[in-house]
Design goal:
Radius of gyration of chain A: 24 Å
Structural class of chain A: mainly alpha
Number of strands of chain B: 20
Oligomer: heterodimer
CATH superfamily of the largest domain in chain A: MetI-like
Number of helices of chain A: 13
Order of helices and strands of chain A: HHHHHHHHHHHHH
Helix content of chain A: over 70%
Helix content of chain B: 40-55%
CATH superfamily of the largest domain in chain B: P-loop containing nucleotide triphosphate hydrolases
Number of domains of chain B: 3
Distance between the termini of chain A: 23 Å
Distance between the termini of chain B: 43 Å
Shape of chain B: globular
CATH topology of the largest domain in chain A: MetI-like fold
């Protein structure tokens, strides 16, 4: 019963967050310099009548709060208005771009999980030894490589020199798409692997020093069993917290990688749209990123009592 | 039959530190051997070596034979077998020793399922049987619960039951009751003694508490600095210690025994004080500070609280009455002990007096001045701090690791006085001298000081501005007995020389006896008994005071009598 109430509370907070975010996203347009109408009529010397017509066509003559309500109710039905640069529905424009970005983010996410967790675990279990130092140095060096530099190096080595992977485009069909996305997803993952690896290491090192680990060892459990059941299991919580924060970072950083590999994804669309004051597209993308971030973190929040039973008992539990 | 035979065990760390230097001891079936020593003596390392749990990259020498098999250098498979079937270990802090993210049932059945290949149902049945054996009330329900739902004493029972799942021949107990209240300690000791007797196990019992070792063990081994100082019959070692170290240890151990000819015990600080201090009989609860406030501050009591209460309100839970209607009084130069178990409200009382908590109701007067309100502004805080200073439990946490001892004291001086640098330095050295430290300690950071030295720095800091009252909240609980004795001597010395007024909060009756003429006993936020410490220990009136006193382990030599007594009390406590 309390679980149902708790989850309902979290969902309420989620909706409130999204509502506040929508206000911020929509009204920030009025702060940004530049007039969308003059962009629409670029290159022409419009008559006042033409300006008024275009303004009315895009609903820009209405008071801001009414523009907001129109936009909000449209957005709730999947209609984010029309793109100014493409003269198409925003949903259509995004629908073409989204799969590439999602594929990129999912592949990078898998790489981050597998490589980050294993690097962190290897370092923690060999704490103070060569393997630990080597992993830490490796992670630190990788962490200092910006993703555009990483992209260029990957292209130079694996596409141009070795010719193993394509350097451009997102391919056709499922397998070909995955093949095309290998290098971009590596480039995107690098920085985040470092983050997850370091958090995993420190969280596991902390758990390894706990007395309950020694108790488990003293009872004759195999080391591997102790590490799986008592060290890694207990170390998950901070790792998940970091993972939740990563989601937004991955979606936004994909812009750089998409540009480097010539992928027509959401990130490159965002950069382009900001440049051209295509505010309906910008609003839609930002709302998408915000929603993804908030939803993922809400899921992690809701899962928390299963991850750490103490949190269900509230702050009073020791 | 010898179960455990350690001979000439040495252990060196890679950095050249020798942790163990020629340890020899043995344990037979059905026998309890005490391993006694202060922190750093190597007693825990010795115990862990029996299970092959050695520090990383340590080198060992000598031999450890468990049930006829050599442990040192044994291959992993054999070590696992020893840990699964021959010996198991109970650790000090059950809250740290049981994985907080797994259920009690998981802890109980883990080894049965994963190591012994028992089915879930078999493991469950065995777990329930063992939880019954350690007298937990509802074993079936407990299996689904998490550690945070248990009290410390209940968790330690789970830890014991968990150690018994493997039906060990030898049970190693590493300070199993140190983290527990004294009444809980008595219950746990009873459970351990029962299980040892019914299973004919050998027991290696590690403790820093001489009285506990003396009341429980057949033989004892006294360790210090990685060496065995003395071993032999428990009775003989404590009555006629031969080694210098044991003599000092016995002398430093406070006791609650009243009126008995002390066995090599130094005259307690409390007794010395009593002769010089004026008779500070606590007035009856009604005539606290009479009609009207004292005209001259010096005439009244130094510290007086009247009907002090504090209730904590927590959202969605029952409010907790931490302190209810507490009235205490300490005469100028007197020392009052506040005794109680965890949750009795003794620390909340101290925090209200020091001004860290706001009392809900009641009245606090220090040297005749009103000090009830928790200070809000900087000036109020400074004024309150000049009235009363506190020494906290853990000197490792209460001193800033980045600043030197001298600087810590100097900061307190600068905050409250307008001394010039040179004068302040001189004052710092005087204060350090007062607590038995020297000039070189002024430049030391806390990291390089020992626990006792740190606590003395904390006392010097508290005394820097000459407060009217010094509150010591479990100030010696984290220290070894010999260090505790030093710190208590320092306090006694300062009281004699300066007439310092002390409020001494402790769970340890023996320590309170050593420091305080008057004592109040707290339970569930209420003061249940008050009076002269000697009278209270000798002829307790309230049943709870009697339970507290009876729970303190004593070298009674008639082990069965102590056990029977403790178990009756434990039963009445759980029913009450």
């Amino acid at each position: 019963m309390t679980a149902v109430r708790r989850i309902a509370g979290k969902l309420g907070a989620l909706l409130l967050t999204l509502f506040l975010a929508s206000l911020l996203v929509f009204f920030s347009r009025f702060i940004v310099p530049g007039d969308p109408v003059s962009f629409l009529l670029r290159g022409r010397t419009p008559s006042p009548d033409a300006v008024a017509a275009v303004t009315a066509q895009y609903g820009l003559d209405l008071p801001p709060w009414q523009q907001y309500l129109n936009w909000l109710f449209g957005a709730l039905q999947g209609d984010f208005g029309r793109s100014l640069q493409y003269r198409q529905d925003v949903s259509t424009v995004l629908g073409e771009r989204l799969p590439v970005t999602l594929g990129l983010v999912v592949m990078a996410g898998l790489l981050i999980a597998v490589i980050g967790l294993s690097a962190g675990a290897v370092a923690a279990l060999n704490r103070g030894r060569i393997a630990d130092r080597a992993t830490l140095v490796g992670l630190t060096v990788l962490g200092a490589v910006p993703s555009f530099v990483g992209s260029i190096v990957l292209i130079a080595v694996f596409s141009v020199q070795l010719r193993w992977f394509p350097s451009f485009g997102s391919g056709e069909g499922f397998l070909d798409t995955i093949y095309h996305l290998v290098l971009p997803s590596i480039a995107l993952a690098i920085v985040f692997v470092v983050l997850v690896g370091k958090v995993t290491r420190s969280s596991m090192v902390e758990q390894l020093g706990r007395e309950h680990v020694e108790v488990a060892m003293s009872r004759g459990l195999k080391r591997a069993t102790v590490i799986r059941r008592h060290v890694f299991r207990n170390a998950i919580r901070p790792i998940l917290t970091v993972a939740g924060v990563l989601v937004a970072g991955l979606l936004v950083s994909s812009a750089i990688v998409e540009a480097a590999f010539g992928l027509s994804g959401m990130g490159s669309l965002l950069v382009q749209s900001v440049d051209r004051l295509d505010f309906p597209v910008v609003q839609a993308i930002v709302m998408f990123v915000v929603t993804a971030f908030v939803v993922v973190n809400a899921i992690i929040d809701i899962l928390e009592p299963w991850i750490d039973p103490r949190s269900a008992a509230g702050a009073g539990a020791r | 039959m010898t179960l455990l035979d350690i001979s000439g065990l040495t252990l060196d760390l890679p950095n050249g530190n020798r942790l163990l230097d020629g340890i020899s001891l043995d344990v037979s079936a059905g026998e309890t051997v005490g391993l006694v020593g202060e922190s750093g003596s190597g007693k825990s390392v010795t115990a862990r070596s029996v299970l092959g749990l050695l520090p990383d990259r340590a080198t060992t020498g000598g031999s450890v034979r468990l049930d006829g098999r050599e442990v040192l250098g044994a291959p992993m498979g054999e070590l696992l077998d020893l840990r699964r079937h021959r010996a198991s270990m109970i650790f000090q802090d059950p809250r740290a020793g049981i994985n907080p993210m797994r259920t009690i049932g998981d802890h109980m059945t883990e080894t049965l399922r994963l190591c012994e290949g028992k089915s879930t149902a078999e493991a469950r049945a065995r777990a329930i049987e063992l939880l019954h054996a350690v007298r937990l009330p509802r074993p079936e329900d407990h299996l689904r619960q998490y550690p945070h739902e248990f009290s410390g004493g209940m968790l330690q029972r789970v830890m014991i039951a968990g150690a018994l799942t493997s039906s060990p021949r030898l049970l190693i107990c590493d300070e199993p009751t140190t983290a527990l209240d004294v009444t809980t300690q008595a219950e746990i000791i009873t459970v351990l003694a029962e299980q040892r007797a019914s299973r004919d196990m050998g027991m290696l019992f590690i403790t820093h508490d001489l009285n506990l070792a003396a009341s429980l063990c057949d033989r004892v081994v006294v360790m210090s600095g990685g060496r065995v100082e003395e071993h032999g019959d428990a009775r003989r070692v404590f009555r006629e210690p031969r080694a210098e170290y044991t003599k000092r240890l016995v002398a430093a151990t406070p006791t609650i025994a009243v009126g008995e000819a002390s066995v090599g015990r130094a005259v307690s600080a409390g007794e010395r004080i009593e002769t010089s201090a004026p008779d500070t009989r606590l007035p009856s609860a009604q005539s606290r500070y009479g009609a009207g406030a004292p005209t001259r501050p010096a005439a009244g009591p130094m510290l007086a609280t009247l009907g002090l209460s504090k209730t904590y309100h927590r959202r969605g839970k029952e409010p907790v009455r931490a302190v209810a209607d507490a009235s205490i009084e300490i005469a100028r130069g007197g020392a009052l002990g506040v005794v109680g178990e965890s949750g009795s409200g003794k620390s909340t009382l101290a925090r209200m007096i020091v001004g860290l908590e706001q009392a809900d109701a009641g009245d606090i007067r220090i040297a005749g001045r009103e000090r009830t309100a928790a200070p809000r502004t900087r000036d109020e805080r400074l004024a309150h701090a000049r009235s009363v200073q506190m020494v906290f439990q853990d000197p490792y946490l209460s001193l800033d690791p980045r600043i030197t001892a001298g600087r810590a004291i100097e900061d307190a001086l600068r905050l409250h006085t307008r001394l010039a640098s040179a004068e302040a330095r001189t004052r710092v050295l005087e204060l350090l001298d007062l607590v038995g430290l020297a000039e070189q300690h002024a430049n030391a950071r806390p990291r390089t000081l020992s626990g006792g030295q740190r606590q003395r720095v904390a006392i010097a800091r508290a005394l820097a501005i000459a407060p009217d009252v010094l509150v010591m909240d479990e100030a010696t609980s984290a220290l070894d007995v010999s260090v505790q004795a030093q710190v208590l001597d320092v306090v006694a010395e300062i009281r004699r020389e300066r007439g310092l007024t002390v409020l001494f909060i402790s769970h340890d009756l023996a320590v309170v006896r050593r420091v305080c003429e008057e004592t109040v006993v707290m339970k569930d936020g209420e003061i249940v008994e008050r009076g002269r410490t000697v009278r209270l220990l000798d002829a307790p009136e309230h049943p709870y005071t009697r339970l507290l006193i009876d729970s303190v382990p004593r070298p009674d030599w008639d082990l069965d009598a102590v056990m029977a007594e403790a178990s009756i009390d434990a039963l009445s406590a759980t029913q009450g």
